[in-house]
Amino acid sequence: MESIQKSLEGLSMEDKVAKLLKRLVDSEEHNTKLKEKASQVDKLTKANTSLEKKLEKANLILLKTEDAKGKLEELCRELQKMNKQIREDSLNKVRLLEHERQQAVEQLRTALKVSCSFFTFNGNVFFEKTSAMFSILFYIAHVKKTVVIIFSLELLLQSLTHRNHHTYSFFVILLLQIF
């Protein structure tokens, strides 16, 4: 206030009014500019707050996504381990089944050779078929799951029933060749 009074000293009343009026207009313009800037600051503050909230939400989503990614990667590793174990188990089972099949084939060959030694081609002498031999034959037939073997075994049984030693010897040779 004192600075205004000092600046007005020595001026006429008209000049004082004009100077005060000009100062009032300048003050109003300055006040209007300050209000505009204040409203802009409010808008920017609100926008900043909103952006900070969005950023916070985005960071939370990112953390959850990274956590989920880590869990999925761990699950994938576990799944790969399980798949590898299943493959190994399957291969071991196939090897075991193949080994058992080979043993059964060898047992069948032995049984057929033994049965051939009981059979005399020159005479009509047949020894009774043993249930153990045919149990082995049918077991092998089902292990190999071949129609030829099952059909051959059925014909072999029929030939033994009718005491046809030529048919019997033919099918014994056929079975030996199959195995």
UniProtKB/TrEMBL annotation:
It comes from the Eukaryota. InterPro entries: Taxilin_fam. Keywords: Coiled coil. Pfam families: Taxilin. Residues 17-107 form a coiled coil. GO terms for molecular function: syntaxin binding. Transmembrane segments: none annotated. Belongs to the taxilin family. This is Putative cortactin (inferred by orthology to a S. mansoni protein).
